[in-house]
Amino acid sequence: MASEDVKTSGEAAVSTIVNLAEEAKLASEGVKTQGPAFLSICKSLVAGGVAGGVSRTAVAPLERLKILLQVQNPHSIKYNGTIQGLKYIWRTEGFRGLFKGNGTNCARIVPNSAVKFFSYEEASKGILWFYRRQTGNDDAQLSPLLRLGAGACAGIIAMSATYPMDMVRGRLTVQTDKSPHQYRGIVHALSTVLKEEGPRALYKGWLPSVIGVVPYVGLNFAVYESLKDWLLKSNTFNLVENNELSVTTRLACGAAAGTVGQTVAYPLDVIRRRMQMVGWKDAASVVTGDGRGKAPLEYTGMVDAFRKTVRYEGFGALYKGLVPNSVKVVPSIAIAFVTYEMVKDVLGVEMRISD
């Protein structure tokens, strides 16, 4: 009886040792695989950040003019069109005026772009995995609608994470040398808004941003990826070389994606920008709440901002700044997508967004 107990105990001990050894082996393999995975994540984030910084700096003058057109008082017009607006900024503020707020914009867009591209890749993987499980088809691919969903998720995550920087960037962009109150930079603007208007002020206009980012970022990714996929599979225009699309073709796909996305979401961008200016009494040439230049700018919410804008300025006010934004967004989105893929190639990351 005792010998049987000893035998049983010995077998249990051997089994435990074997199990522990197997677990240790799996853990060591996990550490080995986590290293390259972590490095790949870092490379993906770097590629997304570089893409955002390069694309936004390239179109910084148009970005500033767009914001100035969105919020200017219709009874005190200084900026009347793209060419005239750029000339006016150059004449009154010089070369540096064209890039005012770009430092803040890059400080926001670099992490925003990094998180956005990475979130899109991760959301795409998760959605594809869930879709394959639901359909039972292990070879299923992302449809344009599923890409739209992944892009929407990425846009909401990235925008929410960096929204205070966007709000501050808007104010730094609008102020001029003649503004009574001057923000000296990003940190000073953040601290001033927190002290004078409270923490909630940093998220003014967040709701229209969330609503707007779904069609904007979602359509950007969905149109870009679907166009690329269609061109690679059909080769309709003989644009495929060595199973790859040229940089020019990818730029064209990015341009089409940017045009579709920004046209659908632009009115929400105008409302967001106007809501961000609420509470800032020293903004230069900013539209007033009643449209007559007498009452201070004040909106009770997104719906109220829409209502007042259309009532006092007409439906066309929702598309103020669309021309410079269209000129800006086409190369901006195109450059961002192509730069992202090129940087990932340079860094040696095998997986790209279209994979």
Could you characterize the architecture of this molecule?
With 355 residues, the chain is mainly α. The chain has a single domain (14-347), classed as Mitochondrial carrier fold (Alpha/alpha barrel). It contains 10 helices and 2 strands. The chain has helices spanning 2-58, 60-71, 82-98, 102-135, 144-174, 186-197, 206-234, 247-276, 302-313, 322-347; strands spanning 240-241, 244-245. Strands 1-2 form a two-stranded antiparallel sheet. Helix 1 crosses helix 10 (322-347) and helix 8 crosses helix 10. The longest helix is centred in the N-terminal third of the chain and has 57 residues, at 2-58. The chain is globular, with a radius of gyration of 26 Å. Mean pLDDT is 80; it is low at 1-9, 23-34 and 291-296.
Provide the number of structural domains. 1
CATH homologous superfamily, by name? Mitochondrial carrier domain
Strand order in space, largest sheet:
1-2
Which CATH top level class fits? Mainly Alpha
The assigned structural class equals mainly alpha
Q: Report the average pLDDT across residues.
A: 80
Poorly predicted spans: 1-9, 23-34, 291-296
**Main pleated-sheet profile:** 2 strands, antiparallel
- Tally of DSSP helical segments: 10
**Helix content class:** over 70%
What Rg is obtained from the alpha carbons, in whole angstroms? 26 Å
Brief overview:
The protein is 73% helix and 1% strand. The protein contains 10 helices and 2 strands. Strand 1 and strand 2 form a beta hairpin.
